[in-house]
Amino acid sequence: MTIRSAFAVALATTTLAGTVAFAEPQAEVLHYWTSGGEAKSVAVLQEEFSANGGTWTDMPVAGGGGDAAMTALRARVLSGNAPTAVQLKGPAIQEWYEEGVLADISAVAEAEGWANVLPASIAKHMKCDDTWCAAPVNVHRVDWIWANADVLSANGIAMPTTWAEFNAAADKLQAAGITPLAHGGQAWQDATVFETVVLGIGGADFYQKALVDLDEAALTSDTMVQAFDQMRKLRGYVDDNFSGRDWNLATAMVMNGEAAFQIMGDWAKGEFTAAGKVPGKDFLCASTPGAGFLYNVDSFAMFNVDGDDKKAGQMLLAKLVVGQNFQKVFNLNKGSIPARTDVSLDEFDDCARLSSADMTASSEGGSLLPSYAHGMALRGAQAGAITDVVTAHFNSDMSSADAVAQLAAAVKNSQ
Amino acid sequence: MVEWFERHLPKMVLAPSFVAIMVFVYGFIGWTAWVSLTRSRLLPKYEIEGFFQYGRLFDTPRWDTAMNNLFIFGLLFIGISMLLGLLIAILLDQKIRTEGVLRTIYLYPMALSLIVTGTAWKWILNPGLGVESVVRGWGFESFKFDWLVNPDLAIYTVVIAGVWQASGFVMALFLAGLRSVDEEIIKAAQVDGIPTTRIYSAIIIPSMAPIFLSAFIVLAHLAIKSFDLVIALTGGGPGYATDLPATYMYAMAFSRGDIGQAASSAMIMMMVVFAIVVPYLYSELRAKND
User: Fold this and answer.
1) Which among B99, B226, B270, B261 has a CA at the least distance from the CA of B172?
2) Which of A64, A78, A406 lies closest to B61 in CB terms?
C-alpha cells in the first residue's frame, strides 16, 4: 500500500465517520427568485443557512413566472431525484402531495409552534392532510390600489372606497385628460383586477363561494354579472395601448402622472420605492374598494429525500424560513409582509403596516381569502379556465351575461 | 466474413439512427397518445379513461379560437408567401444586373430568429410607438392602424410578420425552379413569337409543380408548429385572441399542470399535419412505383 492510497483510505474513513457522527444539513433549493430584489432576498436565507452549519445548493430556474421551475421540478421528481425544498404555493402543494412526493415536517412545525403564529387560513395551505409539509415565507397582498398623490390632489379626488366612487373619480380624471387606470393587458393582470372586483362587489362570502368553492349558483348569479359589468367599465378607463404591457410599465405610468390608479399586488410598491418615491407623499396605497384581504403566500414545500444530511437540511431550512429574523429581513427586501403575526414591524413602511393590520383584522373577521389569480385558491387548470373567460371578456365586446354563462361552462369543463 | 460485413455495413450504420427515431419520434407519439386518454394532471398517469380529454378540448372556446386562428393564419400565410415569393422570383429572373444583391436582401429575413421578427414587428405595429404614431406625427391625426391591439384583427399581424419572414425563402425555392426549366423550350417558344406572360403561365409555371408542392409542405409545417412568432409578437393576446394550437398546448402542459389536456391537443395537431402530409407522401410513393 503506497502512502498516497493509505492517505486516501484514511480520508475516506474520517469522512465516513463524520457523516455517521453528525449529519451536516444539506439543502438543494429549487426556486425562481431570480430578479434583482428577489435574488437579494433569497441570498439572506442562504447566508443564514450556512451560518447554521448547513450547505446550500442553489438551483434557481428563471423564466415564465415559475413555469420553467415547475418543468424542472417535474423532470427531477419523475427521475426519482427530487430537490430538498421547492418554492411552491397554494393548492399546488396539495397537488404534489397527492402524487406522494412531499415530506412531513410536523416535528419542526410543532416544536416552533407555527400553529400559534400563522393566521389560520394561511396555515391551512401549509398542511397536507394533518401533517405540515410546507413553510410559508411571506404574504403578498393582491387587492391593492396604487395612486399618484399629486394627480389625485390636483383633481380633488380621495382614495375611492367603493367601486361607484372609483367610477366617479375615473370619469372626472378622464374628463381632465388623464388615463384613470394604468393596466397591462396580460391575462394574469386582467385576472388580478377581476378578483378584486369580485371581492369588492360581492363581498368576502361571495368571493369564497364563487372563486374558491366554485359554487355554480354563485358563478351564475347576478352579482357575478355585476362584476363583469364593472370589468367592462374598467376597460373604458384603460388607455388604448394597454395590450401586452408589463405590469411594471403600468406602475411607471402612475409614477410619472400619466395615469392615476393601478390595481396590482404589493410587488408594485418595490417599483415605486426603487424610483425613490415615498409612500403617503408621492404615491398612495389603499386596499381596493370593499372589505377583505386577498393573499398570495410564497412558501417552500419539502420533498421526500434520502439521507440524514438532507433531512437535517430540510428541518433546518423550515425552522429558519419561519424564524422571526428571516421573516423580517426577507420581507423588507421583497416588499411583502411576514407570514407570522408576531414579527416587529418597526422597520416596515406604512403600506406594509396597513397590510399587516388588515391581515390580522380580516383573519378574525373571516375575510382573509386566497387570491385566485395568483394560484392560491384553485388548481392550475381551474384557475386557468376562469382566467380565459375573464380575459376574453375584457378584450372583446362580450356581454356580461355571455361571460357568466361561459364562466360556468369553463369551470365545469376544467374539473 | 468481409463479404458479409460489406453487405450489412449500410444497415449497421443506419441502425442507431433508426432506433433513435423509433424511440424518440414514434415511441413518444405513442406515449402522448396514451397520456391523452388518461386523467393526467401534474404528472403523467397511465390508467386509460377513454376519450374524455378530447371532449373537454372541443368544449373549450379557447381551443376553437386556436383552431380558427390556425386556419386563418395557415391559409393566408401559405397563400401570400407563395404568391409574393413567386412574383419576386419572376421579377428577379429577368436577368437583371444586381440580382445577387437583391436576392440576398430578400433572403435575409430567413436568417433571423422568429423571436427577433416577432419583437421587431411588435414595435412596428404598436399603435403608440410604430406606424400609427409615426403617420400621426406627419399630421394625419385620424390615421388608425391598431390591428395589434384589436382582438378581431390581431391574428392578421401574425400573418404579416410570418409572410415577411418566409416569402424570401419561397422566392429562393421558386428562383431555383425557374432556372431549372429547360432553356431550349423557352427559346423555342420565343422563336414562335409567344409573349413572355404566356411563356410563364403556359410553360414555366406548370413545369414547376413539384416546387409548388415542396414550398407548400415547408410552409404548412411552419404554420402548424408556429409558436415563437406568436409568443414574441402578441403573447397570444389580446386576451387569447391570437392563440394557436401550439401555444394552447404549451399553456396546458407547462403553466396549468394539465398534461392530459395538452396531450390531447398535441394529438389533434398531429392529425392536422397528417391530413396534409399523408396525401403528399401517397402521391410521391405512387409516382415512384409507376
Assistant:
1) B99
2) A406
Claim to verify: residue A253 and residue A291 sit in the same structural domain: yes
Answer yes or no: are the C-beta atoms of A167 and A233 closer than 8 Å. Answer: yes
Q: Which residue of A has its CA nearest to B54?
A: A413
CB contact at 8 A, A289 and A199 = no
Q: Is the same domain home to A191 and A225?
A: yes
Q: Would you state the pLDDT for residue B290?
A: 57
ipTM of the shown complex:
0.79
Whether A97 and A264 have beta carbons less than 8 Å apart is answered as no
CATH code at A322?
A: 3.40.190.10
A269 and A303 co-located in one domain: no
Residues of B with CB below 8 A from A410's CB?
60-61
Domain span at A72 = 20-140+296-354
Residue B208 lies in a domain: yes
Residue that the C-alpha cell 436577368 belongs to: B95
Same domain as A270, residue A151: yes
Give me the number of domains chain A comprises: 2
Distance CA A66, CA A51 (A): 28
- Asked, for residue B278, whether it belongs to a domain, the answer is yes
- Cell readout for A88 is 411552491
C-alpha cell at A242: 394597454
Q: What is the pTM of this model?
A: 0.84
Q: For residue A280, is it within any domain?
A: yes
pLDDT grade for A134, boundaries at 50, 70 and 90: very high
Residue whose C-alpha is closest to residue A122's, from A141, A96, A97, A143: A141
Q: Which CATH number do you get for residue B203?
A: 1.10.3720.10
At residue A18 the predicted structure's pLDDT band, cuts being 50, 70 and 90, is very low
Q: How confident is the model at residue B50 (pLDDT cuts 50, 70, 90)?
A: confident
> Residues A385, A249: one domain?
yes
Question: What pLDDT does residue A11 have?
Answer: 46
In a domain, A360, yes or no: no
- Tell me, yes or no, whether B18 lies in a domain: no
| Nearest residue of A to residue B260, measured between CA atoms | A381
Nearest CB neighbour to B237, from listed A67, A95, A395? A395
Would you call A186 and B235 a contact, using CB atoms and an 8 Å cutoff?
yes
| Host domain of residue B194 | 63-289
Residue of chain A nearest B56, judged by CA positions: A413
Number of domains composing chain B: 1
Q: CB of A401 within 8 A of CB of A154?
A: no
Q: Is residue A7 part of a domain?
A: no
Query: Residue A93 is placed in which grid cell?
Result: 402543494
Q: Contact B255/A67, CB-based, under 8 Å?
A: yes
pLDDT, tens digit, 9 for 90 and up, residues B97-136: 888 888 888 888 888 888 999 999 999 998 888 888 889 8
Is residue B16 helix, strand or coil? helix
Distance CA A146, CA B38 (A): 45
Contact B127 A241 (CB under 8 A): yes
In a domain, B15, yes or no: no
The DSSP-derived string for B138-207 is TT-TT----GGG-TTTHHHHHHHHHHHHHHHHHHHHHHHHHHHS-HHHHHHHHHTT--HHHHIIIIITGG
